[in-house]
Amino acid sequence: TGQPKGAMNTHEAISNRLLWMQEAYQLDESDAVLQKTPFSFDVSVWEFFWPLLAGARLVMARPGGHQDARYLVETIRREQLTTLHFVPSMLQVFLEERELGQCASLRRVICSGEALPFELQEKFFARFDAVELHNLYGPTEAAVDVTSWRCERGSARTLVPIGRAIANTEVYVLDQSLNLLPVGVAGEIYIGGVALARGYLGRAELTAEKFIPHPFPPSSGARLYRTGDLGRRLAGGEIEFLGRLDHQVKLRGYRIELGEIEAILSQQTKIEEAVVVAREDVPGDTRLVAYLVAKKGSDVRVEELREFLKSKLPDYMIPSAYVMLDELPLTPNGKVDRQALPAPGRLRAEDSASSIIAPRSELEAQLVQIWEEALNIKPVGVRDNFFELGGHSLLAVKLFSRIEQATGSALSMTTLFENATVEQQANLLSIPRPVARVSSLVPIQPQGDRPPLFCVHPWGGNVLCYSELAKHLGLDQPVYGLQARGVEQKENPQTSIEAMATDYLAEIRKLQPEGPYHLCGWSSGGLIAFEMARQLGEQGRSVGLLALIDAYDLTELYTQTQIDESHAAQRAASFVSEAQIVTGAGETVFALVHYDEQLGLTYEAPDGLGLVQGRRSLNDYVNYYLYVERAIRSYVPRPFNGRAVHFWTATRLAGFTPETQRIWNSLSTGGLLIHEAPGEHFTMLREPHVQTLAERLKKYLEHEASVAHES
User: Fold this and answer.
1) Which residues of 219-233 are buried (b: 16+ CB within 10 A; e: fewer)?
2) CA nearest 227: which of 245, 250, 239, 240?
3) Would you say 711 and 703 are in contact if contact means Cβ atoms under 8 Å apart?
4) How far is CA 407 from CA 47, 223, 401, 569, 612, in A?
5) Which residues lie below 8 Å from residue 506, measured CB to CB, with a gap of 6+?
6) Is 75 helix (H, G, I), strand (E, B) or coil?
């Protein structure tokens, strides 16, 4: 499990721990305690010394007996044991034994070492009518345990607390600046008092890192131990354990607490145990994998689990693979052995073979193989949905790139919204397609009978960035994207904002001949959306909603600088690098070297954040950048006789000068509304920030719908 740290605990701390335990549980000569924890683990300390301290009987388990549930049942019966300890993972195994009725002598069971799932607590109470269950918490560096909680029968809590501090011990929940956090707010758990160890043997730097000066000391020289555990204090003073901070992972730009996902999965009525890990079985493709043990007789379906998780968690916290196990692998001391969890061999282990439709043609077989390699999942059926298999926009780029390499035919990224199965993609590749001009209008979410929302592409020309926004707007709100010419077709982009707006309005009117029109644009797409609204107004057509999302700052149009290729290369390199870091696609940083050298660099376009898709040389992006840059710099905005609603991030608002507001006020003669949107420029259209943005947009869309109905 790593290099031993050698925590130097004191006799005072151990004595305090034992005396508290005796005061709390009142052991006497009628009790018998089983010593079953290997003596290299800290729990063995109280198993040895507590019964000797109290005059109770100490029963030594045979070597390895702590991992044999049947042996434990027999030993409890034979020795009339009253008290023993379990790590929750081993308690789960123990409760599966049929002969638990022989354990009538049991009075109390003490759990520690891992989080105690609520479902396991309920299972314990179902098997034992009159036995106490106690949940203890503490690291070795603080003399075994520092909090305790007596579990409650019939409790409505869905998380089992770790309780309150034991005698002469302090437990705090602090933020990163070591400030006390209010009730209900999660932070790191810190420990103080006589329980603390002196530090780590021969490791001064680690001691200084973990044992810090007390921020509000009761005495001079007092210290706190930073546990690395996440928790929150409840209204009654007890603490809930929420997982390890080192089980926090960053996936595609989002920080994720694996323990939070595990806790939610454990609430599902068919799940006995759940462990979630972030795996990188394919270099560069990290994904969440859930390992599950089902309750006996339960038929667990992945689709059911996904829907359950979606009702409680944002999409970026939903595992992409689920592995059903008969039991979780354990370490020698009974904890879950995360290193021994197998790589996911297939996504839906519970599905019958008939539910997975095998390929029926050579092309489908070829695509299935590409999907399985890209998603690292076997088997894939021809009607499996790419997004339901855990696919995301970064994987979509890789998938379509491999399809083009294997078949010689390129699929447009925008087709993924309506063709998300192998079967549908095979049909697309089988049908000869004319070279005729392709529409810029992309149906992101075409369902619903409301007036559609048209979202204009940002700098890089594609509209995948709006997929999460469309999902949160709901299935009753149609959402269409306007993708730039030249991103995926062999044609040059439009060379002016005015020409783009005119082109896109012609596409829109084919779908919606009359207004009111609802327009939206993120980043430089805001400029295009604004010009589209202006042209509609000039034509006497009605504009319902004009939503500009962190739009390009118009003040830059009035402070133009000359654009050359060297400047374009530098700015494009910076943009690509920033987008990659934000999305977690890899921390590739383009040094601002000589222009000619930059053009030889390559990047992997991560996902729809305004980048030319696929693995390209920087030169590809610079060329497209120059088209867009020249179009923006040549744009001379004229007033729109209507209202504009702006959603700006705090960063953008911080630079919101009186001159900026004056310009926008002069251009939006019908009024200017400003909202602060959560997140940063690259993250505001992604989870979790996009949910807030979608809620506010929905209110405006609903208002426009009611106005249209009244008129």
Assistant:
1) eeeebbbbbebbbbb
2) 245
3) no
4) 66, 64, 10, 33, 21
5) none
6) helix
Residues of the chain with pLDDT under 70: 1-3, 246-248, 250-255, 281-286, 333, 345-355, 387-388, 390-395, 397-398, 401, 412-414, 417, 432-438, 460, 486-493, 554-627, 655, 707-711
Contact between residue 80 and residue 28 where contact means Cβ atoms under 8 Å apart: no
Convert the pLDDT of each residue in 311-348 to its tens digit. 888 777 888 788 888 888 887 767 788 888 887 754 44
Q: What's the 3-state SS for 276-298?
A: EEEEEEECCEEEEEEEEEECCCC
Strand partners, 378: none
Polymer length of the chain: 711
Q: Which two tokens stand for residue 254?
A: 């989002």
522 vs 457: CA distance, rounded Å: 7
> Do you find a cis peptide bond into 379, omega within 30 degrees of 0?
yes
Q: What digits encode the pLDDT tens for the residues 235-252?
A: 899 999 987 776 667 565
Count of CB atoms within 10 A of residue 673's CB?
12
CA dist., res. 491 & res. 648, Å (int): 33
Task: Tell me whether strands 543-549 and 239-244 are parallel, antiparallel or unpaired.
Answer: unpaired
- Rounded Cα gap, residues 107 and 636, in angstroms: 82
The residue type at 583: T
CB 480 within 8 A of CB 450: no
Query: What are the DSSP E strand ranges found in 629-671?
Result: 644-649
Q: What is the radius of gyration, based on Cα positions, of the chain?
A: 31
Report the predicted TM-score, pTM, of the whole model to 2 decimal places. Answer: 0.46
Phi, psi at residue 643, to the nearest 5°?
-100, 140
Q: Quick one: which of 446, 427, 448 has its CA closest to 364?
A: 427
CB neighbour class for 363 (10 Å; exposed up to 12, middle 13-18, buried from 19): middle
Task: Give residue 408's identity as a one-letter amino acid code.
Answer: G
Count of helices and strands (H, E) across the chain = 20, 26
CA distances, 53 to each of 9, 15, 109, 134, 146 (Å) = 19, 10, 19, 20, 19
| Structure tokens belonging to residue 9 | 């605990």
Residue 610 and residue 464: Cα distance in Å, rounded? 9
Cis peptide before 516 (omega within 30 of 0): yes
- With beta carbons less than 8 A apart as the criterion, state whether 598 and 567 touch: no
Show Cβ contacts of residue 461 under 8 Å, excluding neighbours closer than 6 positions: 483, 484, 486, 487, 493, 610, 612, 624, 628
Are 153 and 128 contacting, i.e. CB atoms less than 8 angstroms apart?
no
- Specify which residues 517 forms β-bridges with: 543
In whole numbers, what is the pLDDT of the chain averaged over residues? Answer: 81
d(CA 171, CA 183): 14
Burial 92-131 (b: 16+ CB within 10 A, else e): bbbbebeebeebebbebbbbbbbbbbbbbbebbbeebeeb
Joined tokens for residue 27: 């052991």
Compute the C-alpha angle 224/230/231, nearest 5°. 90
